[in-house]
């Protein structure tokens, strides 16, 4: 472990006596003041302050340092040399996660020790469970920050912007608020009709999400180092989220057709969301479709699966979920919940995703990488909201259906309308592809 060159490099950069003394002195002063204001230790004040300091140091500061470990190399123009080194993607990933965040983890360890010894009214197991959850949450947000930095390398090659790194702090705040609501609750959590203790369930959820984020950071590092991978991990993550969220809707005595329909509908939403996220965030190679066509023609299946973009893999999962939802059209209706009655509307939802991806690639094939995502978002906002709202305000509601058809009330006409939109944007995208991409040749 200590022989990892990336870990040793980050430890040499981060670890020095002055930093350890400064952090230790500040924490000692804070907890001394807490003990002076609360000498009896009532109200678990010291323990609560310890948790707050852990959040501020290990989670907020640590997540920032995890992303900055990569962005600093971009600014110093040493990242290309790192990419050409003999380090494996896994060594590079955990070398940055463990090395660049050593000072925040040092501060967080002290805070968790104060929490453990200062917490009153809780058993040793309960205190250890909270500490384990905090550690998992720290790993989660730090790996998420590294993912944001790896995605940002395609946006800003010089690392001048730390937006992707600090964006994880906002996600951290949302996650912290979400989990705090449930940790304060005394209710049991029903998952697939079985009752679970809310603390145990959410601790397991945080651990699982931390593992998936670490795997995601590793796979993105593989992409950055040009290591060929297949999209099975991404498909597994989509299926995991589908199984996880489906459990909240399925009761104990749920019939099998209803459970299948619910899983398909939730899988459709999750996979399409994953498709949008990966298509907008990751690099879109204009020659991908040509290479895939060549692999299919030459029957080189290994290269085909290695070059398939992950957005295409999750879109294929969405297509399977769509077919199951359509098959549920002939099943009985079990409830009035919209998520259980997608049915034929699933085709329209899937076609919406195809149309939006076509718009994204239309701007991608423009020949410049600037403002591709922003131009796509503006056009989609016009199609989804602005133009239909203007037409409806003018009393032209049926005319607005040409842009935003009622997929729940009129699924079949909506499928036809969105299908026509897909054909129009596909024709425009194909024309631009032939103008800017098709004349190119590759070996």
Question: How would you explain this protein's 3D organization?
Answer:
This protein has 443 residues and is mostly helical. The chain has three domains: 1-227, no CATH class; 229-343, no CATH class; 349-443, no CATH class. Helix content is 73%, strand content 1%. It is built from 18 helices and two strands. Strands 1-2 form a two-stranded antiparallel ribbon. A hairpin with a 2-residue loop joins strand 1 (189-191) and strand 2 (194-196). The relative contact order is 0.07. The model is unreliable at 158-163 (pLDDT under 50).
Compose a concise summary of this entry:
The protein has helices spanning 5-14, 17-37, 45-76, 79-83, 89-99, 102-118, 124-152, 163-184, 198-224, 232-246, 256-281, 288-298, 301-307, 310-327, 345-364, 372-393, 397-400, 411-436; strands at 189-191, 194-196. The protein is mainly alpha-helical.
Fold topology:
Layout: H1 5-14, H2 17-37, H3 45-76, H4 79-83, H5 89-99, H6 102-118, H7 124-152, H8 163-184, E1 189-191, E2 194-196, H9 198-224, H10 232-246, H11 256-281, H12 288-298, H13 301-307, H14 310-327, H15 345-364, H16 372-393, H17 397-400, H18 411-436
Antiparallel strand pairs: 1-2
Helix pairs in contact: 1-5, 2-6, 3-6, 3-7, 3-8, 5-9, 7-8, 7-9, 10-11, 11-14, 11-15, 12-13, 14-15, 15-16, 15-18
